[in-house]
Design a protein that fits this description.
This protein is an alpha/beta fold. It contains eleven helices and 14 strands. The strands form two sheets. A seven-stranded mixed sheet has the order 3-1-14-4-5-6-7. A seven-stranded mixed sheet has the order 2-12-13-11-10-9-8, with no helix packed on it.
């Protein structure tokens, strides 16, 4: 059987196209390892020279944690999916690696970047690093299982397990979506005077859509802004919108419990002042404290608060008049140790005012155990970002911190004192809120109920 000239040309063209596709795929398969090796050497070296040893080591550790999982996942997915998708998969991984490299290099001279940079570089780069780290942990978990199955010769089961390699990708995508949203809630906090053992978790009433049941006495309405972490995932305009929505609830007090900045916003003078502008009309109701990250750039935080008329309490107190009565607000500065001594000095300097509800703003919820029983009525804290990994998105309170000394989120008791731990408005660094969304809540404090 003979072929005409046209058929020969078609066959030759198809063969050339297939060869070109194969060459492109092979070249792209080498792009990720090449970029990974260059980044692992170049980024820490550049950071060390320009910014110092600490950041150089930080960059090296971040890449070392993320790259093994990303490299393995790239190869696994190329085998798992049809060959025609291989070049697209390799190209996607190479882009993520390049974006991560550029983002880390940009952090050497950190500042808030334009929208295009955030969407094209920072967010895909940070998501790539987070997914790579998750993948590495996941593959380590599966390693003994695969080892046993290999020794047992269970090839069919091993082939079926290949699809489990997609799990980190699904978790990574879910964590990005969860990290970018906050849940609006109305939270009821009863101060009933009942004594409980230290750090007892109490059930708290949350309403997300339906209005809460009407109560006879007017509650004290609070808005807490915790851990906004102004940065690539929460730029100025987004934080402004979130604050505007909270202010519309017309709260009696707006209490900011620290950690306003990230590395990027620390390098952008005036950014925090612009982000907090929606609080200017209600500045007389606003009180703030420092979190741990605020001590990295205290001048910038002070300026951002003062520019909007917000009072900063650094181991200080304020008396606020509200429609629900006068309130004593004590603001504790961040300390990393000696909590008992620190709080004892604070309470001695600012004793309880007769007949006033006494609030304590304290960034670190772990210090609640050091508050003498009955010394305050309600503590507002943050810092833990709700535990970051848990089942809150599914209506359950469990997080990875549930059985630790760190109160993760919700309402806790110590004697007759109560503490509400806010899940935070934002997060620092990589998008790793997995099953624990941020919070934009209105707190209704019911006194004597």
């Amino acid at each position: 059987m003979t072929h005409g000239p046209r058929q020969v040309n078609v066959v030759a063209s198809a063969g050339a196209s297939g060869t070109l596709h194969r060459l492109v795929t092979e070249a792209l398969s080498l792009a990720l390892p090449a970029l990974a090796l260059g980044s692992l050497i170049g980024v820490p070296l550049y950071a060390w020279v320009v910014r110092g040893r600490a950041y150089g080591i930080f960059g090296f550790i971040i890449l070392l944690v993320a790259l093994p999982g990303a490299l393995v996942l790239d190869q696994r997915l190329a085998v798992l999916f049809p060959q025609r998708f291989a070049s697209w998969l390799h190209a996607g991984f190479a882009y993520g690696m390049a974006a991560a490299c550029v983002h880390l290099v940009g952090l050497v001279r950190a500042r808030l970047r334009p929208r295009a940079f955030r969407w094209l570089v920072s967010r895909p780069g940070m998501a790539f690093i987070a997914t790579g780290a998750l993948t590495g942990l996941w593959l380590l978990v599966l390693l003994p299982v695969r080892g046993v199955l290999t020794l047992a010769g269970a090839d069919g089961v091993l082939a079926a397990l290949r699809w489990l390699d997609l799990f980190p990708l699904l978790v990574g995508a879910g964590s990005v979506l969860t990290s970018m949203r906050t849940v609006e809630e109305v939270v009821r906090i009863p101060l009933d005077g009942v004594e409980h053992p230290p750090l007892t978790r109490l059930t708290v009433e949350r309403r997300r859509r339906a209005a809460p049941v009407v109560v006879t006495s007017r509650p004290l309405r609070l808005v807490q802004i915790a851990d906004p972490h102004l940065g690539p995932w929460q730029p100025v305009h987004r934080l402004q919108r979130r604050i505007e929505r909270l202010v519309r609830h017309d709260p009696d007090l707006i209490l900011l419990t620290g950690d306003f900045l990230t590395m990027e916003s620390q390098g952008s003078p005036g950014a925090l002042a612009r982000a907090l502008e929606p609080l200017q009309p209600v500045a007389d109701r606003c009180f703030a404290i420092f979190g741990n990250h605020d001590h990295e750039a205290p001048g910038e935080v002070r300026h951002g608060l003062a520019a909007n008329g917000i009072r900063l309490l650094v181991d200080d107190e304020a008396i606020a008049s509200t429609a629900a009565g006068d309130v004593q607000i004590v603001g504790a500065d961040w300390v990393s140790r000696d909590h008992t001594e620190h709080l004892a000095r604070l309470f001695a300097r600012h004793p309880r005012r007769d007949g006033l509800l006494r609030l304590l703003l304290m960034h670190n919820p772990a210090a609640f155990a050091h508050v003498p029983p009955g010394e305050v009525d309600l503590v507002l804290a943050g810092h833990t970002h709700g535990g970051q990994l848990g089942l809150v998105s599914f209506g359950l309170d469990w997080t990875v911190l549930s059985r630790t000394r760190w109160p993760d989120h919700g309402l806790f008791a110590h004697g007759t004192s109560r503490m509400y731990v806010h899940r935070g408005t934002g997060f620092y660094g990589f998008p790793l809120r997995i099953g624990v969304p941020g919070e934009a809540s209105v707190l209704e404090v019911l006194v004597g109920s």
